[in-house]
Amino acid sequence: MSSANDIVQETRPLGFPWETADPFLFCVHHDDAYPPGNERMGPAASLAGRNIGQDFAGKDGWRMYHGEVVPGFPQHPHRGFETVTIVRRGLIDHADSLGAAARFGAGDVQWLTAGGGIVHSEMFPLLDRTNPNPAELFQIWLNLPAEDKLVPPHFAMLWSDTIPRCVFLDEAGRSTEVTVIAGSLDGKRAPSPPPKSWASRPDTDIAIWSIRMAPGATWTLPKAAHPQSVRTLYFFKGTSLRIGEHALAGHVAARVRSDVDARLQAGDTETEILLLQGRPIGQPVVQYGPFVMNTREQIQRAMMDYQRTRFGGWPWPSDDPVHGREEGRFARHADGQVERVGS
Protein backbone atom coordinates (compact mmCIF):
# COMPACT_ATOMS: atom_id res chain seq x y z
CA MET A 1 0.00 0.00 0.00
CA SER A 2 1.17 3.54 -0.73
CA SER A 3 1.18 6.17 1.98
CA ALA A 4 -0.32 9.62 1.48
CA ASN A 5 3.18 11.04 1.06
CA ASP A 6 4.34 8.67 -1.67
CA ILE A 7 4.80 10.32 -5.07
CA VAL A 8 4.00 7.03 -6.84
CA GLN A 9 0.40 6.11 -6.10
CA GLU A 10 0.02 3.01 -8.28
CA THR A 11 1.93 1.00 -10.89
CA ARG A 12 0.63 -1.35 -13.56
CA PRO A 13 2.46 -3.37 -16.22
CA LEU A 14 2.29 -2.08 -19.77
CA GLY A 15 -0.14 -4.13 -21.85
CA PHE A 16 -1.49 -3.68 -25.36
CA PRO A 17 -2.99 -1.14 -25.28
CA TRP A 18 -1.81 0.78 -22.22
CA GLU A 19 -4.35 1.56 -19.51
CA THR A 20 -5.17 5.23 -19.04
CA ALA A 21 -7.15 7.47 -16.70
CA ASP A 22 -9.91 10.02 -17.36
CA PRO A 23 -9.82 12.14 -19.54
CA PHE A 24 -7.80 9.67 -21.64
CA LEU A 25 -9.40 6.47 -22.94
CA PHE A 26 -6.38 4.46 -23.99
CA CYS A 27 -2.90 4.64 -25.46
CA VAL A 28 -1.29 2.14 -27.80
CA HIS A 29 2.42 1.94 -28.66
CA HIS A 30 3.06 0.49 -32.12
CA ASP A 31 6.70 -0.49 -32.72
CA ASP A 32 7.32 -2.55 -35.85
CA ALA A 33 10.57 -3.54 -37.56
CA TYR A 34 9.19 -3.67 -41.10
CA PRO A 35 11.40 -5.10 -43.87
CA PRO A 36 12.09 -3.35 -47.19
CA GLY A 37 8.98 -2.49 -49.16
CA ASN A 38 7.68 -3.96 -52.40
CA GLU A 39 6.26 -2.26 -55.49
CA ARG A 40 2.89 -1.75 -53.73
CA MET A 41 4.47 -0.24 -50.59
CA GLY A 42 3.76 -3.37 -48.59
CA PRO A 43 6.41 -5.63 -47.03
CA ALA A 44 8.74 -7.40 -49.47
CA ALA A 45 8.36 -10.59 -47.46
CA SER A 46 6.08 -13.60 -47.38
CA LEU A 47 2.78 -13.08 -45.54
CA ALA A 48 2.38 -16.83 -44.99
CA GLY A 49 1.44 -17.76 -41.47
CA ARG A 50 -0.20 -14.42 -40.72
CA ASN A 51 -3.85 -13.87 -39.93
CA ILE A 52 -4.28 -11.32 -42.70
CA GLY A 53 -6.91 -8.75 -41.82
CA GLN A 54 -6.32 -9.31 -38.11
CA ASP A 55 -2.55 -9.68 -37.73
CA PHE A 56 -1.43 -8.56 -34.27
CA ALA A 57 0.88 -11.47 -33.41
CA GLY A 58 4.19 -9.69 -34.07
CA LYS A 59 5.70 -12.46 -36.20
CA ASP A 60 9.29 -11.53 -37.21
CA GLY A 61 8.95 -8.28 -35.22
CA TRP A 62 6.16 -6.67 -37.24
CA ARG A 63 2.42 -6.74 -37.78
CA MET A 64 0.09 -6.13 -40.72
CA TYR A 65 -2.71 -5.11 -38.31
CA HIS A 66 -5.90 -4.95 -40.42
CA GLY A 67 -4.02 -4.30 -43.66
CA GLU A 68 -3.93 -6.86 -46.45
CA VAL A 69 -1.27 -5.32 -48.75
CA VAL A 70 0.08 -2.33 -46.80
CA PRO A 71 0.21 -2.56 -42.99
CA GLY A 72 -2.23 -0.41 -41.07
CA PHE A 73 -5.88 0.25 -40.44
CA PRO A 74 -8.22 0.51 -43.46
CA GLN A 75 -11.36 2.62 -43.24
CA HIS A 76 -13.15 2.53 -39.87
CA PRO A 77 -15.51 4.94 -38.07
CA HIS A 78 -15.16 6.99 -34.87
CA ARG A 79 -17.57 9.09 -32.84
CA GLY A 80 -17.39 10.92 -29.51
CA PHE A 81 -13.65 11.34 -28.81
CA GLU A 82 -10.30 12.38 -30.28
CA THR A 83 -7.23 10.55 -31.53
CA VAL A 84 -3.74 11.99 -31.02
CA THR A 85 -1.24 10.14 -33.23
CA ILE A 86 2.47 10.73 -32.57
CA VAL A 87 4.75 9.25 -35.25
CA ARG A 88 8.29 8.73 -34.01
CA ARG A 89 9.56 6.69 -36.99
CA GLY A 90 8.03 5.77 -40.32
CA LEU A 91 5.02 7.32 -42.06
CA ILE A 92 1.24 7.27 -41.85
CA ASP A 93 -1.03 7.86 -44.85
CA HIS A 94 -4.36 9.32 -43.72
CA ALA A 95 -7.59 9.50 -45.74
CA ASP A 96 -11.08 10.26 -44.43
CA SER A 97 -14.76 10.57 -45.23
CA LEU A 98 -14.51 14.36 -45.50
CA GLY A 99 -12.11 14.00 -48.42
CA ALA A 100 -9.10 15.07 -46.37
CA ALA A 101 -5.74 13.34 -46.73
CA ALA A 102 -2.28 13.48 -45.20
CA ARG A 103 1.12 11.83 -45.05
CA PHE A 104 3.02 12.49 -41.84
CA GLY A 105 5.94 11.12 -39.82
CA ALA A 106 9.38 12.09 -38.48
CA GLY A 107 7.99 13.44 -35.21
CA ASP A 108 4.74 14.86 -36.64
CA VAL A 109 1.46 14.60 -34.72
CA GLN A 110 -2.07 14.40 -36.06
CA TRP A 111 -4.84 15.51 -33.68
CA LEU A 112 -8.25 14.38 -34.92
CA THR A 113 -11.56 15.34 -33.32
CA ALA A 114 -13.98 12.64 -34.44
CA GLY A 115 -16.91 14.46 -32.85
CA GLY A 116 -20.24 13.55 -34.44
CA GLY A 117 -18.63 11.03 -36.75
CA ILE A 118 -15.81 10.43 -39.21
CA VAL A 119 -14.47 7.47 -41.14
CA HIS A 120 -10.73 7.34 -41.73
CA SER A 121 -7.92 5.01 -42.69
CA GLU A 122 -4.39 4.95 -41.31
CA MET A 123 -1.93 3.02 -43.45
CA PHE A 124 1.83 2.58 -42.97
CA PRO A 125 3.45 2.75 -46.44
CA LEU A 126 6.88 1.12 -46.71
CA LEU A 127 8.64 3.45 -49.14
CA ASP A 128 12.22 2.17 -48.94
CA ARG A 129 12.66 -0.81 -51.25
CA THR A 130 16.27 -1.48 -50.24
CA ASN A 131 16.46 -0.96 -46.48
CA PRO A 132 14.22 -1.77 -43.49
CA ASN A 133 11.24 0.50 -42.80
CA PRO A 134 10.96 0.79 -39.00
CA ALA A 135 7.69 2.31 -37.78
CA GLU A 136 6.98 3.53 -34.25
CA LEU A 137 4.04 5.57 -33.06
CA PHE A 138 1.71 6.28 -30.19
CA GLN A 139 -2.01 6.66 -30.63
CA ILE A 140 -3.81 8.22 -27.70
CA TRP A 141 -7.58 8.45 -27.35
CA LEU A 142 -8.74 11.58 -25.51
CA ASN A 143 -12.37 11.78 -24.45
CA LEU A 144 -14.78 14.60 -25.26
CA PRO A 145 -17.29 15.98 -22.73
CA ALA A 146 -20.98 15.37 -23.36
CA GLU A 147 -21.61 18.81 -24.83
CA ASP A 148 -18.90 18.31 -27.48
CA LYS A 149 -19.37 14.68 -28.47
CA LEU A 150 -21.29 15.57 -31.63
CA VAL A 151 -19.28 18.59 -32.80
CA PRO A 152 -18.20 18.64 -36.48
CA PRO A 153 -15.08 16.51 -37.07
CA HIS A 154 -11.80 18.36 -37.44
CA PHE A 155 -8.12 17.50 -37.67
CA ALA A 156 -5.03 19.54 -37.02
CA MET A 157 -1.46 18.72 -38.04
CA LEU A 158 1.24 19.50 -35.50
CA TRP A 159 4.32 19.33 -37.71
CA SER A 160 7.52 18.27 -35.99
CA ASP A 161 9.31 21.61 -36.43
CA THR A 162 6.46 23.45 -34.64
CA ILE A 163 6.50 21.21 -31.54
CA PRO A 164 8.61 22.61 -28.67
CA ARG A 165 11.51 20.61 -27.27
CA CYS A 166 12.95 21.57 -23.90
CA VAL A 167 16.46 20.37 -22.95
CA PHE A 168 17.59 20.30 -19.33
CA LEU A 169 21.07 19.43 -18.03
CA ASP A 170 21.67 18.04 -14.56
CA GLU A 171 24.71 18.87 -12.39
CA ALA A 172 26.78 16.26 -14.22
CA GLY A 173 25.79 17.63 -17.64
CA ARG A 174 23.49 14.71 -18.49
CA SER A 175 20.54 15.72 -20.63
CA THR A 176 16.79 15.28 -20.46
CA GLU A 177 14.79 16.31 -23.53
CA VAL A 178 11.04 16.87 -23.23
CA THR A 179 8.90 17.10 -26.37
CA VAL A 180 5.78 19.14 -25.54
CA ILE A 181 2.93 17.79 -27.69
CA ALA A 182 0.23 19.30 -25.47
CA GLY A 183 0.49 21.76 -22.61
CA SER A 184 3.44 23.95 -21.70
CA LEU A 185 6.81 23.60 -20.01
CA ASP A 186 9.63 25.99 -19.21
CA GLY A 187 7.86 28.87 -20.93
CA LYS A 188 7.22 26.93 -24.14
CA ARG A 189 3.70 26.01 -25.25
CA ALA A 190 2.61 23.27 -27.64
CA PRO A 191 0.74 24.13 -30.86
CA SER A 192 -3.00 24.60 -30.44
CA PRO A 193 -5.18 21.47 -30.48
CA PRO A 194 -8.48 21.46 -32.41
CA PRO A 195 -10.93 24.08 -31.11
CA LYS A 196 -13.40 21.70 -29.42
CA SER A 197 -10.79 19.50 -27.77
CA TRP A 198 -10.87 19.07 -23.98
CA ALA A 199 -7.24 20.20 -24.27
CA SER A 200 -8.29 23.53 -25.78
CA ARG A 201 -9.97 24.62 -22.54
CA PRO A 202 -7.71 26.74 -20.34
CA ASP A 203 -8.50 24.91 -17.07
CA THR A 204 -8.13 21.25 -18.08
CA ASP A 205 -4.32 21.09 -17.68
CA ILE A 206 -3.83 18.57 -20.49
CA ALA A 207 -0.20 17.62 -20.97
CA ILE A 208 1.23 15.07 -23.41
CA TRP A 209 5.01 15.00 -23.09
CA SER A 210 7.62 12.62 -24.49
CA ILE A 211 10.61 12.49 -22.14
CA ARG A 212 14.03 11.16 -23.20
CA MET A 213 16.74 10.91 -20.52
CA ALA A 214 20.42 10.20 -21.05
CA PRO A 215 21.86 7.30 -19.02
CA GLY A 216 21.98 8.28 -15.34
CA ALA A 217 20.34 11.67 -15.93
CA THR A 218 18.22 13.33 -13.27
CA TRP A 219 15.40 15.81 -13.85
CA THR A 220 12.69 17.25 -11.66
CA LEU A 221 9.22 17.01 -13.17
CA PRO A 222 7.37 20.15 -12.03
CA LYS A 223 4.00 19.81 -10.33
CA ALA A 224 0.88 20.26 -12.44
CA ALA A 225 -0.97 23.55 -12.73
CA HIS A 226 -4.29 22.11 -11.58
CA PRO A 227 -4.56 20.29 -8.21
CA GLN A 228 -7.16 17.84 -9.58
CA SER A 229 -5.07 16.71 -12.54
CA VAL A 230 -4.38 13.01 -12.92
CA ARG A 231 -0.81 12.27 -14.06
CA THR A 232 0.56 8.99 -15.42
CA LEU A 233 4.14 8.23 -16.44
CA TYR A 234 4.57 5.38 -18.94
CA PHE A 235 8.11 4.05 -18.55
CA PHE A 236 8.60 2.11 -21.80
CA LYS A 237 12.31 2.19 -22.62
CA GLY A 238 15.37 1.72 -20.43
CA THR A 239 16.60 -0.63 -17.74
CA SER A 240 15.25 1.23 -14.71
CA LEU A 241 13.73 4.48 -13.53
CA ARG A 242 13.54 6.07 -10.10
CA ILE A 243 10.65 8.41 -9.25
CA GLY A 244 11.47 10.08 -5.96
CA GLU A 245 12.37 7.17 -3.69
CA HIS A 246 10.40 4.64 -5.74
CA ALA A 247 12.46 2.41 -8.05
CA LEU A 248 10.80 0.94 -11.15
CA ALA A 249 12.60 -2.14 -12.42
CA GLY A 250 10.22 -3.03 -15.24
CA HIS A 251 8.30 -1.18 -17.90
CA VAL A 252 5.15 0.04 -16.17
CA ALA A 253 2.55 2.79 -16.01
CA ALA A 254 3.05 4.79 -12.80
CA ARG A 255 0.24 6.98 -11.49
CA VAL A 256 1.99 9.79 -9.65
CA ARG A 257 0.91 12.72 -7.56
CA SER A 258 0.49 15.86 -9.63
CA ASP A 259 0.52 18.37 -6.77
CA VAL A 260 4.25 18.01 -5.98
CA ASP A 261 7.48 18.06 -7.96
CA ALA A 262 8.85 14.60 -8.80
CA ARG A 263 12.56 13.87 -9.17
CA LEU A 264 13.25 11.40 -11.97
CA GLN A 265 16.49 9.47 -12.31
CA ALA A 266 17.27 7.29 -15.33
CA GLY A 267 19.04 3.96 -15.08
CA ASP A 268 22.26 3.08 -16.85
CA THR A 269 20.77 3.17 -20.36
CA GLU A 270 18.81 5.78 -22.28
CA THR A 271 15.36 6.05 -20.73
CA GLU A 272 12.08 7.12 -22.33
CA ILE A 273 8.78 8.04 -20.70
CA LEU A 274 5.43 9.20 -22.05
CA LEU A 275 3.50 11.54 -19.73
CA LEU A 276 -0.29 11.87 -19.93
CA GLN A 277 -1.92 14.38 -17.64
CA GLY A 278 -5.23 16.17 -17.36
CA ARG A 279 -8.19 17.18 -15.28
CA PRO A 280 -10.81 14.40 -15.47
CA ILE A 281 -14.04 15.01 -17.37
CA GLY A 282 -15.87 13.04 -14.70
CA GLN A 283 -18.77 11.79 -16.86
CA PRO A 284 -20.01 8.27 -17.62
CA VAL A 285 -18.10 6.47 -20.37
CA VAL A 286 -19.89 3.90 -22.51
CA GLN A 287 -17.76 2.45 -25.29
CA TYR A 288 -18.60 0.10 -28.12
CA GLY A 289 -15.58 -0.38 -30.35
CA PRO A 290 -14.91 2.91 -32.15
CA PHE A 291 -17.80 4.79 -30.50
CA VAL A 292 -17.42 6.45 -27.07
CA MET A 293 -20.51 8.09 -25.61
CA ASN A 294 -22.19 8.65 -22.23
CA THR A 295 -25.13 6.22 -22.45
CA ARG A 296 -26.07 2.94 -24.12
CA GLU A 297 -28.81 4.74 -26.02
CA GLN A 298 -26.24 7.10 -27.51
CA ILE A 299 -24.16 4.12 -28.61
CA GLN A 300 -27.20 2.62 -30.33
CA ARG A 301 -27.84 5.96 -32.03
CA ALA A 302 -24.20 6.10 -33.18
CA MET A 303 -24.52 2.66 -34.75
CA MET A 304 -27.77 3.59 -36.49
CA ASP A 305 -26.34 6.89 -37.73
CA TYR A 306 -23.27 5.16 -39.12
CA GLN A 307 -25.36 2.51 -40.89
CA ARG A 308 -27.59 5.22 -42.33
CA THR A 309 -25.07 7.91 -43.31
CA ARG A 310 -21.64 6.24 -43.26
CA PHE A 311 -20.58 9.55 -41.69
CA GLY A 312 -20.38 11.15 -45.09
CA GLY A 313 -19.47 8.13 -47.18
CA TRP A 314 -16.09 7.04 -48.48
CA PRO A 315 -14.75 9.07 -51.43
CA TRP A 316 -11.70 6.85 -52.04
CA PRO A 317 -11.24 4.04 -54.57
CA SER A 318 -10.23 1.50 -51.93
CA ASP A 319 -10.65 0.92 -48.20
CA ASP A 320 -6.88 1.26 -47.65
CA PRO A 321 -5.61 4.11 -49.85
CA VAL A 322 -1.96 5.11 -49.83
CA HIS A 323 -0.45 8.17 -51.48
CA GLY A 324 2.16 8.18 -54.23
CA ARG A 325 5.60 6.82 -53.49
CA GLU A 326 7.20 10.17 -54.29
CA GLU A 327 4.76 12.18 -52.18
CA GLY A 328 6.30 14.09 -49.25
CA ARG A 329 4.77 15.01 -45.92
CA PHE A 330 1.58 16.98 -46.50
CA ALA A 331 -1.98 17.55 -45.35
CA ARG A 332 -4.97 18.39 -47.52
CA HIS A 333 -7.84 19.51 -45.33
CA ALA A 334 -11.54 19.12 -46.05
CA ASP A 335 -11.77 22.80 -47.02
CA GLY A 336 -9.09 22.33 -49.68
CA GLN A 337 -6.27 23.96 -47.71
CA VAL A 338 -2.95 22.20 -48.37
CA GLU A 339 0.07 22.15 -46.08
CA ARG A 340 3.43 20.83 -47.23
CA VAL A 341 6.58 20.34 -45.19
CA GLY A 342 10.00 18.75 -45.83
CA SER A 343 10.50 15.31 -47.34
TrEMBL record:
Domain Pirin N-terminal: 66-142
Pfam families linked: Pirin, Pirin_C
MF annotations from Gene Ontology: metal ion binding
Record note on cofactor: Binds 1 Fe cation per subunit.
Alphabetical keyword list: Iron, Metal-binding
Names of the cofactor(s): Fe cation
Residue ranges annotated for the Pirin C-terminal domain, each copy included: 209-312
Domain of life: Bacteria
Basic and acidic residues bias locations: 320-343
Renumbered residue ranges of the record's region Disordered: 315-343
Binding-site residues, Fe cation: H76, H78, H120, E122
Family: Belongs to the pirin family.
Classification via PANTHER family: PIRIN, PIRIN-RELATED
Name of the protein this chain belongs to: Pirin family protein
Gene source species: Polyangium fumosum
